[in-house]
Amino acid sequence: LGGQVGIAVPTGTFNQVYQTGFGGHASFMYNLIEEGIWVNGQIGYITFSHSSTREDISGHWATVPLLGSLRYQLGKGNFRPYVGVSLGYNFVSRKLEIVKDVITTIRKDETEAAFGGGLLAGFFYPITPSLLLDATLSYNFVNTEQLEEGASYMGIMVGVAMPVNF
């Protein structure tokens, strides 16, 4: 079992509309092949603030990613790097507030479910015999059609993982 927190840097056209975001996730990892292939399931929350230079527009874009991933561990020993891929669904919400004048404010609250995926690289490093440092760099793509088409971001996440014996 594990969890990570970190930042998310928007890329591509998504970078033109939103600022660097933050978030985290909880995960479950299962080692299929000893010190080799890991299956991972995770749920998280990541949010980005609107980056408009105009004072009359504010808001945010957020996603709850429900993802599965495969990680291939490249090494054994203390420092254990890995690479992987992730696929799943993202539950996206966008809230915008546009102030037209003193009396009129337009609020848009929209949601969408979208397929997403990513590439990741990172490492495990033991902190104690029963606690691992888990650091991940990932490129994530959310295939939204209505809410910022083609949203993508780089995630930098750091956290811990703890073995659980069943």
Written description of the protein model:
Helices cover 2% and strands 72% of the residues. It is mainly beta. It has an eight-stranded antiparallel beta barrel with strand order 1-2-3-4-5-6-7-8. 25% of the residues are buried.
Summarize the SSE layout with pairings.
Layout: E1 2-11, H1 14-17, E2 21-33, E3 37-49, E4 57-73, E5 80-99, E6 105-128, E7 131-142, E8 151-161
Antiparallel strand pairs: 1-2, 1-8, 2-3, 3-4, 4-5, 5-6, 6-7, 7-8
Task: Offer a quick outline of the entry.
Helix content is 2%, strand content 72%. It contains 1 helix and 8 strands. Strands 1-2-3-4-5-6-7-8 form an 8-stranded antiparallel β-barrel.
Radius of gyration: 18 Å
- SSE sequence, one letter per element: EHEEEEEEE
Q: For the terminal residues, how far apart are their CA atoms?
A: 12 Å
How many strands in all? 8
Strand order within the widest sheet? 1-2-3-4-5-6-7-8
Which terms summarize this structure?
166 residues; mainly beta; 1 helix; 2% helix
